[in-house]
Amino acid sequence: MKKINNLYWMAALCLLFSCTKQKINVQPAGSSSAQNSKLTQSSPIGDVVGKITVGYQGWFACIGDGSPINAWWHWAPNASQQPSNSNNGIKSWPDMREYTASYQTGFSNLGNGQQPRLFSSYSDQTIDIHFKWMEQNGIDAAALQRFNPNGWEGPVRDAITNKVKIAAEAHNRKFYIMYDVSGWTDMQAEIKADWTSKMSAYTASSAYAKQNGKPVVCIWGFGFDDNNHPWSATRLSIGSKQKVVM
Ligand SMILES: *[C@@H]1O[C@H](CO)[C@@H](O)[C@H](O)[C@H]1NC(C)=O
């Protein structure tokens, strides 16, 4: 009996060793073996693991779009004024062909003679079109960034979140909340409160990304050494009882 046991353990050890060897073989060069065995035990394919996710901000707005923010948000350095050559926050002109709702800017006409109009993320069709593009191009999920919702940006963030949910459901895509802690001094307590009181309700949506049976939440913005991130990463403690996997 003892011999059999020994044989069993030897076989088990061999198996373990060969697994370990295999693991090491698939690991990227340069990382430690302790990290490596963690890597190979990563989660199975789910709504985010093994999928393509894009960051989604939904933060463009125009004066007159009916949004609570009513400004040329992220289109112009001075958001109280039309974007123009002297008030330009645009890095590349968006493809406007599919939007029927758009807003006139102060730029001169485009090279093709068309008016220089821009979209608002607040128009219902905008986010729907973006999720349709995701569907057409094999992009599985959007990580919806959530900036400090307790200030002036809160009402528009809440509205955009609801539009993202509707569009994700309509186009069979996934979405999840990605808190962005930039400039958010009291983020530690306020993220928890916001998740509990508002955002966790979205996990009831069939489109809310789940991984390993749990809703996915991301927190973005640690590791920057600047005034917009005035804390050390050790300040973040989510707590083990919450259903947070990322
Ligand atoms: C931004 O535009 C508004 C409206 O034209 C103007 O009143 C304000 O002075 C401008 N702000 C700056 C910093 O130029």
Ions, cofactors and other bound molecules: 2-acetamido-2-deoxy-beta-D-glucopyranose
Q: Beta-sheet strand percentage?
A: 5-15%
> Structural class, from secondary structure content?
alpha/beta
Principal-axes shape call = globular
Protein name: Xylosidase
Signal peptide: 1-22
Organism: Tuber aestivum (summer truffle)
Keywords: Signal
Q: Could you describe the 3D structure shown?
A:
The protein is α/β, with parallel strands linked by helices. The protein folds into 2 domains: 1-59 and 123-246; 70-120, no CATH class. 30% of the residues lie in helices and 12% in strands. The chain has 5 helices and 8 strands, in the order H-H-E-E-E-H-E-H-E-H-E-E-E. It has helices at residues 2-25, 33-40, 124-136, 154-170, 187-197, and strands at 53-56, 103-104, 117-118, 141-146, 174-180, 210-211, 214-215, 217-220. The chain has a 4-stranded parallel beta sheet with strand order 1-4-5-8. Helix 3 (124-136) packs across helix 4. The longest helix has 24 residues, at 2-25. The radius of gyration is 24 Å and the shape is globular. The two termini are 47 Å apart. It binds 2-acetamido-2-deoxy-beta-D-glucopyranose. The site of 2-acetamido-2-deoxy-beta-D-glucopyranose (NAG) has 3 residues, from loops.
